[in-house]
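JOB MANIFEST
job_type = single_chain_structure
chain_count = 1
residues = 695
[input]
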Amino acid sequence: MCFFFCKEHSFALVRVGCFERVNQVTAILCVRDQQMAATSLRWFVVCTTLENLPKAGKRAAKKSKLEKLFAEHRKYDPEIASGRATVPSGEHMYGLVRLLLPQMDRDPNGQNVLYNMKEQGIAKLFVQALGIGNTESAKKLAAWKKPEGGEGYGHFAVVLYHQLCAPGRAHHTGQTLTVADVVKFCDDMSAAARDPEPQKQQQQLVTTLVKTASAFELKWIAKVLLRELRASATEDLVLGAYHPDASELFKVDARLREVVTKCCDPKKRLGEASIQVNSPFRPMLAEKMQDFSRIAKNFKNQAFWIEPKFDGERILIHMVDGKMRCFTRNCNDYTETYQPILTKIKPLIKAETCILDGEILAWNRATDRWLPFGNNISVALNEGGKLSGGRGVTNAERGKLSGGRGVTNAERVKGEELRDAHLCLILFDVLLIEKEKLEHLPLKDRRKRLNGLIDKAGENFFDSSIFPPPSRGKKVLEIVSHKEATTEKQVKDELENEIIDKDGEGLMLKNPESVYRANMREKSGWYKLKPEYVSGSTQEYDVIIIGGSHGKNNRSGCMWTWVCGLAVKPQKGKVHPTEFLSFTRIGTGLKHHEFRELDKIMSPHKHKFDLKKYKKGCPIKENGVTFQRSDRGVSVTYPQERINGETLPEVTVWFSGSAQEEVEVAFDPRKSVVLTITADYRLTEVIYLYRENTF
């Protein structure tokens, strides 16, 4: 027996010996579907809702569709179906909510549900499960982000769908898979990701899945595995459709499972939500300020505070009966990772229960400077005795301890930097002391309570208010200092004289009367200001496009990241440069239509760039262009050519560092476009390193 999928109508023709038996078998499938419907909501219904959601138009119409979906799902709760209850269980409802918001999914212990797979990994699983290795479909899945991926390129799940629907592809009709089935599949995939041989376990699961799901259903399962549905199902929309109070509750309690459980009954209102200890929440954020002239208006001509802005990890510390936990701004539990500094600061807190808001940074005692934010994890592991010989943190260690993020080159700090570095916590708010909630107090009162909460006489406390400031040494705790201001000039002076001169990140401007609003950015009363906003602290530079990579999802269909370079000055007597160096990449700063217009201009001149193909000592020549890998990076050499009536010499473009991995196509700089970028003083210092040898 085999099944041939009908792409247009999401059903299958079933061939069993002869087509006369199609109606008979289809009837059997319908009966089975009806039996399944008695106990669980079909996944096909969820997929159809998600497919149609972006087409619904206004928010109210989208919300209505989701409300109907939740209402339907409630009926399948075992207790409701049996008549023993009128309100579904939290576990039953969470099964659907987690599939609609996969990026928010947490296990019962509050840890991220991770599958440790990206598009290429999922593609390999499906290629093996379908037995289509070395076929055109397999090639398109591998090139899903590029035009070679075929219809829907840039959207992995859409490319997967079209390859599953390719002529002659045999798979199941679908429409029998349930929400409960998909939940179990996701749990099994997540468990397999922690297995010593994850690929083997996950391969078995996917191979079984394709036997019971249609291409349409598999497309949406792939989106869940990628933890991004991109179907207009925003967090606020889904939670608002689930319960009228769920969205507000989620702002002060980011444990999605607990929120769903508390909001099981859509008719029962919860009242005002407030911050609770050991309930992670997203912190209050700052709005970006770019116009100095709006300062007085934003603060209604009243006094405001100026604070330094730090480039660290935003952390919320919850201490209950002396036991400390800490959560990031995305509500990931980093208690184990940052245990060394938590141990040091605990004796300085004069309370048994509290909630603190601050930022963790790594201080280099040898240079008296903050290390870049990316070094926090390496320093934390080193302080905890989990790194040997001063080595940096690996991907595996970071994934295990901090929510699965990858490790960057910046995080692999040198051994001597690790030996001279330690973590520091800079506090700027307190939201609860013992049983007293402080979020509704003005900032000026909360800051007074914070100052009274911390033992400033402790040996690990650093007082930044002293002038001139003493040596920080090995001290780990600080309360952010602030200056009161009323004018635009005071802000400019502080930014230019203090922050720029001290290589700071920027400034925070805060209304001292502001109350604390979790997960609030707009009109919160807090503003962030960076050096590039100040006239005179930026410079413009001309760079030339030498490479690029395609966008994905909403940015699909064209090149969206441009790798730009600088020209090395030609030798004496030469007019034209013959060597170009990769320098930076541009992925923002242009509007959608400008990116697409630039793509049209550059597309005729692109050359495929495949880092995996290039081996040291083995140059590859394609269409007259030579690609060669070396310790320096990858060089792309374009032959002498007559362009616009002038014979131009051979040129070589060098891609080094991360640029090698980001490039999908290369461009001949002689036929390229020059872009003007604005750089602040920090980038200016880097550019000066090139100045002697480049334009």
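[summary]
Confidence is low (pLDDT under 50) at residues 1-38, 395-412, 684-692.
The CA atoms of residues 98 and 514 lie 34 Å apart.
exit_status = 0
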